[in-house]
Amino acid sequence: MRTLSLTLLTLILSGCAAWLPRHDPAQAWVDLDAAQASQVQATEVDEQQLDDPRFFQVAPGSHRLGVRYLFEVGAHNIGRDAPALQRDCRLALEYAGFEAGERYRLAAGATGFRPWARLYGSDGRLLAQADERGCLRG
């Protein structure tokens, strides 16, 4: 019985990952990569809201990507006895060179209270950096 339960759980969890749509070779695909203990979400392309926050898929050319980044600021950045602070930030990234069929990686992280996001090409080269658009306490 235990083996059956574990098998079913594995199938269910692997099925969740399979629900990502197929990469359209006529578009560019942007994977999202967050630092540990944080979360990055795709929110909009060219000021149009997205339905799926797990990735960006855009036509070739120039685009403005909206990103939501949620992270925790640890006590070492606040004060020794302070509890951790949740931050919910919006960032915007512009890049003019998206190419059809290419896969990009948008990495996000934070330094203290300040979030950052960077776009990398498939070769690992830095292509663009995001601008912070505002943060709230989470």
Give an overview in words.
It comes from Pseudomonas mangrovi. This is Lipoprotein. It is a single chain. This protein has 138 residues and is mainly beta. It has one domain (22-137). 12% of the residues lie in helices and 54% in strands. The strands form two sheets. It has a five-stranded mixed β-sheet with strand order 4-1-7-8-9, with no helix packed on it. It has a five-stranded antiparallel β-sheet with strand order 3-2-5-6-10, with no helix packed on it. Mean pLDDT is 84; it is low at 1-18.
State the order of secondary-structure elements, H for helix, E for strand: HEEEEEEEEEE
Average pLDDT figure: 84
What structural category do the secondary elements indicate? mainly beta
pLDDT < 50 stretches: 1-18
- Shape call: elongated
Q: How many structurally independent domains?
A: 1
What is the spatial order of strands in the main beta sheet? 4-1-7-8-9
How much β-strand is present in the residues? over 45%
**Fraction of residues in helix:** 10-25%
Largest sheet: 5 strands, mixed
Q: Which value, in Å, is the CA radius of gyration? A: 18 Å
User: What is the CA-CA span between the terminal residues?
Assistant: 41 Å
The oligomeric state of the chains shown is single chain
SS element count, helices:
1
